[in-house]
Specification:
heterodimer, A: about 260 residues, alpha+beta, Uridine Diphospho-n-acetylenolpyruvylglucosamine Reductase, domain 2, Uridine Diphospho-n-acetylenolpyruvylglucosamine Reductase, domain 3, Enolase-like, domain 1, five-stranded antiparallel sheet, about 30% helix, B: about 800 residues, Aldehyde Oxidoreductase, domain 4, 3 domains, seven-stranded mixed sheet, five-stranded mixed sheet, 19 helices
């Protein structure tokens, strides 16, 4: 790890100002950034910690749904969202291991947009709103491919607002080594229709499976998926699974998520 | 009533107190005055010619004290292979020099070609990056695939070896024609091609070494993560650096796991010694996890074709194998023994097979060296054999349990001369199979299968009846077979004046629990409390000699040396007692910690004898020496032959291909058991590693020789929830006939016997589920592979 400066602002304005300096890098739970720095693959000049800003912490119901401060840890979400949005809480409780869950944050995960991360599927399937220091971004506009988002340079996610579906579930199939999602599917049933978001599978990052959404909006049962198939051409093909295998997992896991939805 | 002390007691592991409370003493824990830090500069390409290493910039960087390159070691010796193998045509194996630092060429990703020594670790890292940037390497095509390596004589890992072939070994070559004829004549023939996947050892503690040099005396000290400090000393002294053995102390303090990977001498050990001498300061190096992945000796990596000839009733008539064994870029110390004499000699398993022939071609590639890893050759043999026998049963429509019963050796056949050169001394393979069938509730399988089916899962059951040869090894035999070292062991039993005992043993414990078990053995024999016995290991300055721990040898070989040394202690104690009790030496007997005169109530306790030995006020010094300390070397008469039967049940999710191990039952024969709890733990660990190999672990190099599974993000280790609660039994014991403790060894059994049981269970599950086109799936049977096989 190379040397760096470390600042820990206590409000968003100070954080924004700190982020404006040359070579500044936002640090939330550090579950991706710190290992990258240890391997000398990243060498920011200044780390701006976002974990001491009170308005970026916590879980509560508010306008538009469940508001989660961006620096809220997975462990906190798992606990505090359990009765408010059980599908989301279960997702948070299944990320990594206890150490990861007690450091990693929703904002960090959504900002990084790892193609195998769990959270982006919930954000997209919920039709959530990503709130930053400057604006509100709809989930459908936010994710723009692997590790790519609508965030501008220096822009900080302050919270995410999740509309709460009537029923939801996240089913993850672990990559055997990392236990990231080899494929993960979040299904959310709203009065207005069903949204299905898939992580881990696609070369383009998290995506919505439109055919399944249409079928499930008519008939919310695993059987409704019977005639559908997933196009494997855009799927990830790697050591842990071929594109065809991932395409299969998308369908299998979607069915299981529908069955598990509460 | 279980014993609570001595042999047979489940004494708690005394070493765990320090391991679990953070007060162990590992190499990297040691902090020395004026110490410096070494960082290795490693190749990022698999194969290349070193054009130029410009050290000027790195050498001038802050804190940098020295820069070493291959040039600095060009004049010293190479790290040798410990075992000479001759090819079928009688020519000796090709044995390229393995230098301390790569010189001229780099031969695998991670091959160290330079080292930086600096005041701080961070400074050394910075300079290593600079040196890497300032090095010109002309990249050559990588040689990764073994068959391609043999086919292309123009592309060479070592310029002097034209076809990348180390050796082409036949066992037993003289039997080849007879085996071919028997195979030809067999009414049924089964052929199976399989891969025994390459594994990264992944000891919890990475390799680490600290070199010191003492200019006043010219002595060197190496503290290192070794399974056998004396062998490391011998290799450095006799081959690599020419330091006299009596000027080099090698200490292996607490070592956090080895699994074979720390048997061998590595270049970093020589580097820190050379650097310590040049700088006159201690030099320390600790591998990062990535370095462990890239540069520890890997395990397995065989590609095998096995053929089995049999009758229609399932009597095995002949077995013939052809294996390509990857030795990587250089020959690690035991790399040539592992695919040959630890593999080919086991190819008849626990069965009466009249004709067996094994062919192994060892191939150089641009990958990390491959050497012994828990089981070492025997898992490869067992996997090939147990898979092909299962396939035979399936092809003939026979029950896999009955097929094995039909072919297993029977107790009346011991001692048994196998067709591949081993003399099995004792065993009862039917007993362990019966026990496994009982404990694994084979009778209840159908009900469990139906319950799984109700959940949409395919349940299968797999069997493996395995044998191994361990307690390595009789020197006279291995000498004939090409070993360049003897494989005895040694122990000194020192009775202190106050009656407590220090035992200096050549075996090295890196997690096994020797400090507990060896103390139990001593306490039992000398009739004293376990707490009075201290086991000292891992320091060449304290221990007479030793060949270390691997090959499940510690108790069978070193424990026997300890037993012999105690015989000498008792004999000496009788002399002392005879003097003290004014009796004839022949009238003294020793039992329960007391020396007594036969037929009288006259006796001296062990403690009184010990005290007298060191306070010899009225000794007849012409005939009775003071002191009570004895050393014995023990060279085994034979290998030991643990064996057992393993039954695995799996559930396969046909939609995702995921395999879950539902249960695993082990019935083992380890001979006499000294500490049942520790034996059980060894089996748990071994089976866990075997399940890891079968389901999860895979080492993948791409066509450019880049290690794709170079971290735990991509290399899947078994975790607690990947393995079931095991059922383990060691009650069907047939004691070893040729060592004093009657022990056979248990360290590797689980890793040897378990992989085929898992794979047999997976194939069984698919067939019972109607998916009969799947004959075999290579390890690891990852979900993706299983799903693909189902949907092929």
């Amino acid at each position: 790890m190379h040397n760096f400066e470390f600042v820990k602002p206590s409000n968003i304005a100070d954080a924004v100002q700190a982020m404006a300096s040359e070579g500044a890098q936002a640090l939330s739970g550090g579950q991706t950034l710190l290992p990258t720095m240890k391997q000398r693959l990243a060498q920011p000049e200044t780390l701006v910690s976002l974990t001491a800003i009170p308005e970026m912490q916590g879980v509560c119901m508010g306008e538009g749904g469940l508001h989660i401060g961006a620096a809220t840890t997975h462990a906190t979400v798992a606990q505090e969202a359990a009765s408010l949005y059980p599908g989301l809480a279960a997702l948070a409780g299944g990320i990594g291991d206890p150490m990861v869950r007690n450091r990693g944050t929703v904002g960090g995960s959504v900002a990084n947009n790892d193609p195998a991360a769990c959270y982006p599927s919930a954000v997209l399937a919920s039709g959530a709103t990503v709130v930053t220091n400057t604006r509100k971004i709809a989930a459908d506009d936010y994710f723009q491919g692997m590790f790519t988002t609508a965030l501008e340079e220096g822009e900080i996610i302050t919270s995410v607002i999740f509309p709460v579906p009537a029923k939801s579930a996240y089913v993850k199939f672990n990559q055997p080594a990392s236990r990231f999602a080899l494929t993960g599917v979040f299904v959310a049933q709203f009065d207005t229709g069903v949204r299905v978001a898939v992580t881990g599978a696609s070369n383009n990052g998290v995506f919505r499976w439109a055919e399944a959404e249409a079928a499930l909006s008519k008939d919310f049962s695993a059987a409704a998926l019977a005639g559908l198939s997933v196009d494997a051409s855009e799927m990830i093909n790697d050591l842990h699974g071929t594109a065809a295998y991932r395409a299969n997992l998308v369908k299998v896991l979607t069915g299981r998520a529908v069955t598990a939805a509460r | 009533m279980p014993k609570d002390t001595g042999i047979g007691a489940s004494s708690k592991r005394r070493e765990d107190v320090r391991f679990l409370t953070g007060v162990g003493n590992y190499t990297d824990d040691l902090s020395l005055h004026a110490q410096t830090h070494a960082v290795m500069v490693r190749s990022t390409v698999a194969h290349g010619r070193i054009v130029k290493i410009d050290t000027a910039r790195a050498a001038a960087m802050p804190g940098v004290l020295a820069v070493f390159t291959g040039e600095d070691f060009a004049a010293v010796g190479g790290n040798p292979a410990g075992w000479l193998i001759n090819s079928r045509d009688g020519t000796p194996m090709r044995e390229p020099k393995r230098p301390v630092l790569a010189h001229g060429k780099v031969r695998h990703v991670g091959d160290a070609y330079a080292a930086i020594i600096a005041e701080t670790y961070a400074q050394a890292k910075d300079a290593a990056q600079a040196l890497s940037d300032d090095t010109q390497i002309e990249e050559l095509p990588a040689i990764v695939d073994m068959k391609a390596a043999l086919a292309d004589a123009s592309n060479r890992v070592h310029d002097e070896i034209p076809d990348n072939l180390c050796f082409d070994w036949g066992w037993i070559e003289d039997n080849r024609a007879a085996v071919d004829a028997a195979m030809q004549a067999a009414p049924h023939k089964v052929t199976l091609e399989l891969t025994n996947n390459r594994l990264v050892p992944n000891a919890m503690e990475p390799r680490a070494s600290i070199g010191e040099y003492f200019p006043g005396t010219g002595d060197y000290k190496l503290t290192t993560t070794s399974q056998n400090p004396h062998l490391t000393r011998l290799l450095i002294a006799a081959f690599v650096m020419g330091i006299p053995e009596n000027k080099l102390q090698v200490v292996a303090p607490d070592v956090g796991g080895g699994f074979g990977s720390k048997i061998y001498h590595y270049g970093e050990e020589a580097l820190v010694l050379a650097a310590a001498k040049r700088l006159g300061r201690p030099v320390r190096w600790t591998a990062e996890r990535t370095e462990s992945f890239l540069s520890d000796a890997h395990g397995r990596d065989h590609v095998t074709k096995i053929e089995l000839g049999c009758t229609k009733e399932g009597d095995i008539l002949a077995i013939r194998t052809e294996t390509h064994a990857n030795v990587g870029a250089y020959l690690s110390n035991f790399s040539t023994a592992t695919p040959t004499f630890l593999h080919g000699t086991l190819m008849s398993g626990p069965y009466k097979v009249p004709h067996v022939y094994v062919n192994v071609k060892a191939v150089f590639t641009n990958t990390a060296p491959v050497d012994a890893y828990r089981g070492a050759g025997r898992p490869e043999a067992t996997y090939s054999l147990e898979r092909v026998i299962d396939m035979m049963a399936r092809e003939l429509g026979l029950d896999p349990f009955e097929v094995r019963r039909r072919n297993l050796l029977t107790p009346d056949q011991f001692p048994y001369q196998s067709p591949v050169g081993l003399m099995y001394d004792t065993g009862n393979y039917q007993a362990t199979l019966d026990k496994a069938v009982e404990l694994g509730d084979v009778a209840g399988f159908e009900a469990r299968r139906a319950a799984s089916a109700a959940k949409g899962k395919l349940r299968g059951m797999g069997l493996s009846t395995w044998i191994e040869a361990c307690g390595i090894a009789p020197s006279n035999l291995v000498g004939i077979l090409g070993s360049r070292v003897g494989l005895y062991d040694a122990a000194t039993v020192r009775v202190n004046a106050t009656g407590n005992i220090s035992v200096m043993v050549g075996a090295h414990s890196h997690g096994q629990g020797h400090e507990t078990v060896f103390a139990q053995v001593v306490a039992e024999k000398l009739g004293i409390p376990e707490s009075s016995v201290e086991i000292v290991h891992g320091d060449t300055a304290k221990i007479p000699f030793g060949m270390g721990s691997y090959g499940s040898r510690s108790l069978a070989v070193c424990g026997s040396a300890m037993d012999r040394a105690m015989d000498k202690i008792i004999a000496k104690g009788k002399k002392i007692a005879a003097h003290m009790l004014e009796a004839a030496e022949g009238d003294i007997s020793f039992a329960d910690g007391k020396f007594s005169v036969a037929g009288t109530d006259k006796a001296k306790t062990f403690g009184e004898i010990a005290f007298s030995a060191y306070v010899p006020h009225n000794y007849p010094l012409e005939t009775l020496e003071p002191g009570l300390e004895e050393t014995a070397f023990y060279d085994p008469a034979n290998f030991t032959y643990p064996a057992g039967a393993y039954i695995c049940e799996v559930e396969v999710d046909p939609d995702t291909g995921r395999v879950e191990v539902a249960s695993f039952t082990c019935a083992d024969d380890f001979g006499n058991v000294m500490n049942p709890m520790i034996v059980e733990g060894q089996v748990h660990g071994g089976v866990g590693q075997g399940i890891g190999q079968a389901l999860l672990e895979n080492t993948t190099y791409d066509e450019n020789g880049q290690l794709l599974t170079g971290s735990f993000m991509d290399y899947a280790m078994p975790r607690a929830d990947d393995v079931p609660f095991y059922t383990v039994d060691a009650s069907c014991a047939t004691p070893c006939t040729h060592n004093p403790l009657g022990v056979k060894g248990c360290g590797e059994a689980g890793a040897i016997g378990s992989p085929p049981a898992v794979i047999n269970a997976v194939i069984d599950a698919l067939h019972r589920g109607g998916i009969t086109h799947v004959k075999h799936i290579d390890m690891p049977v990852s979900p993706g592979r299983v799903w693909q096989a189902i949907n092929a």
